[in-house]
């Protein structure tokens, strides 16, 4: 089954052996922007796209830099069978899910501290200009599973994993200020409008009725109310999303037992179907030009592999194939011209990266790789993360991922392993740039 093969592509079940190869031809000019990544030591790092000295923003000593010496050979890897058991320290601090603020000047991230019988879970914000962390929220019982900035950059929203389900929490980006519970449910997907005073929700309520619905909630400083229910009943997709220009809201609804991508005005008025979808689990993401949506359907819910990708023009409702390959996730570049996707090669124990030029239709294979558990989670929920994180450089010249880069197309595993790394991959086909050991990586949204 493909779902079993997909598990083999995750670094938790696969490692790699280093092979030495001559340095590839000179790389193109480095992309614009900065990256943040989670190191294999579970700390958060930050650097520009050249990344000569990554800065650790969560290490115990202030302003720690990691120096990386370029070797005379560029390491590439092949797939293997099992990760060495590193064991767990009795007292650990782990950080995750870093996300840049909309202006790129701050990084929010989660923290978990486990010290003997005590644990704590927190959300922090790091001010890059002043090298100053601020504690925004802390809980002794509930883990934070996702963090997203509101578009105004003044608040953070995050999901708390509680015993009965998830809670969506809103917090002002200031220390020691009260937080606000917006709603609870499981699952729970959301997106904020451009003014950050309305949130589109897709959730299954935790009450006795267990009602699944897509709804629009309005918030004021003292109240919050569902102002419109957009769809009720089983809806096979994840998150509703506003277009980047803030003029439209897209979601999936059931019309006469048929799933449709619906595009409405920003206030959810004048809804119209732009795509009729096949049976299955569906995902879509907006193009940054706000004129197109990329969408895909996974026929088997237990196997999150999509049967190709299509692109729809929301004005004409005309759709065309981007690729018919099996894919795991897809990501628009800021220029709206390029779409990166993760391929799922048949009967192969790895993933592949490709980029499609949407203007010419050219589909370029870039690299094969084995992912990490954290990256695999990001890919599983890529449509939700599309509203909060990006893998693309601001100039659309490269993207970043964390994992083990492979040489060739191995059919089976081999017995040794280096740690996974963050890789910056130029889309012109020039050599990827290895940044540092990492398990999760993202670009900044701003230059």
In short:
By secondary structure, the chain is mainly beta. It has helices at 2-8, 373-380, 382-385, and strands spanning 16-22, 34-38, 44-48, 55-56, 64-65, 73-79, 91-100, 106-115, 118-127, 132-139, 143-149, 155-162, 165-172, 179-185, 188-192, 198-204, 212-219, 224-232, 241-242, 248-255, 258-265, 272-276, 281-286, 292-298, 306-313, 319-332, 338-343, 351-357, 363-371, 398-406, 421-426, 433-437, 440-443.
Describe the structure.
With 447 residues, the protein is mainly beta. The protein has a single domain (2-443), classed as Neuraminidase, CATH 2.120.10.30. It is built from 3 helices and 33 strands. A hairpin with a 2-residue loop joins strand 12 (155-162) and strand 13 (165-172). The protein is globular. The N and C termini lie far apart (43 Å).
Q: Any descriptors?
A:
disordered N terminus, 51% strand, mainly beta, ten-stranded antiparallel sheet, 3 helices, 447 residues, five-stranded antiparallel sheet, Neuraminidase
**CATH topology grouping:** Neuraminidase
Strand order of the largest sheet: 23-24-25-26-27-28-29-30-31-32
The tally of strands reads: 33
Derived structural class:
mainly beta
Number of domains: 1
CATH superfamily: TolB, C-terminal domain
Radius of gyration: 21 Å
Overall pLDDT level: 86
Q: Which band does the percent of strand residues land in?
A: over 45%
Q: Can you name the CATH architecture?
A: 6 Propeller
- Quickly name the level 1 CATH class: Mainly Beta
Which regions have little confidence, pLDDT < 50, spanning 5+ residues? 1-8, 11-25, 62-90
Spatial gap, N to C terminus: 43 Å
Helix content: under 10%
What can be said about the biggest beta sheet?
10 strands, antiparallel
Shape: globular
Number of helices: 3
């Amino acid at each position: 089954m493909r779902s079993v093969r997909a598990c083999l592509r995750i670094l938790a079940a696969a490692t790699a052996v280093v092979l030495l190869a001559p340095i590839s031809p000179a790389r193109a000019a480095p992309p614009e922007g900065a990256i943040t990544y989670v190191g294999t030591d579970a700390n958060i790092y930050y650097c520009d796209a050249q990344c000569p000295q990554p800065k650790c923003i969560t290490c115990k000593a202030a302003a720690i830099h990691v120096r990386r010496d370029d070797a005379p050979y560029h390491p590439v890897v092949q797939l293997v069978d099992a990760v060495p058991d590193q064991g767990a320290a009795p007292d650990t601090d782990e950080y995750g899910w870093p996300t840049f603020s909309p202006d790129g000047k701050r990084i929010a991230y989660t923290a978990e501290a486990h010290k003997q019988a005590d644990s704590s879970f927190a959300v922090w914000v790091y001010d890059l200009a002043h090298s100053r962390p601020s504690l925004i929220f802390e809980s002794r019982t509930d883990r934070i599973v996702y963090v997203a900035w509101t578009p105004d950059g003044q608040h953070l929203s995050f999901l708390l994993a509680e015993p009965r389900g998830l809670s969506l929490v809103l917090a002002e980006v200031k220390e020691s200020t009260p937080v606000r519970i917006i709603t609870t449910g499981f699952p729970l997907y959301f997106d904020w409008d451009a003014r950050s005073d309305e949130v589109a929700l897709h959730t299954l309520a935790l009450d006795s009725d267990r009602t699944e619905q897509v709804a629009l909630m309005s918030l004021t400083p003292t109240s919050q109310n569902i102002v419109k229910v957009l769809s009720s009943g089983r809806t096979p997709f994840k998150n509703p999303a506003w277009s980047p220009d803030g003029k439209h809201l897209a979601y999936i609804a059931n019309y006469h037992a048929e799933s449709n991508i619906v595009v409405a005005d920003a206030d959810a008025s004048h809804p119209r179907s732009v795509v009729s979808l096949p049976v299955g689990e569906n995902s879509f993401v907006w193009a940054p030009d706000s004129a197109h949506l990329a969408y895909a359907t996974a026929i088997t819910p237990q196997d999150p592999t999509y049967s190709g990708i299509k692109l729809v023009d929301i004005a004409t409702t005309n759709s065309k194939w981007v690729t018919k390959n099996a894919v795991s996730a897809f990501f628009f570049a800021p220029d709206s011209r390029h779409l990166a996707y993760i391929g799922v090669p048949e009967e192969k124990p790895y993933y592949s990266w490709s980029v499609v030029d949407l203007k010419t239709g050219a589909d370029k294979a870039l690299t094969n790789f084995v992912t990490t558990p954290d990256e695999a989670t990001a890919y599983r929920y890529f449509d939700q993360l599309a509203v909060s994180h990006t893998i693309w450089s601001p100039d659309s010249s490269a993207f970043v991922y964390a994992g083990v880069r492979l040489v060739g197309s191995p059919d089976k595993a081999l017995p040794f392993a280096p740690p996974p790394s963050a890789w910056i991959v130029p889309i012109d086909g020039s050599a990827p740039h290895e940044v540092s050991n990492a398990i999760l990586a993202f670009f900044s949204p701003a230059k």
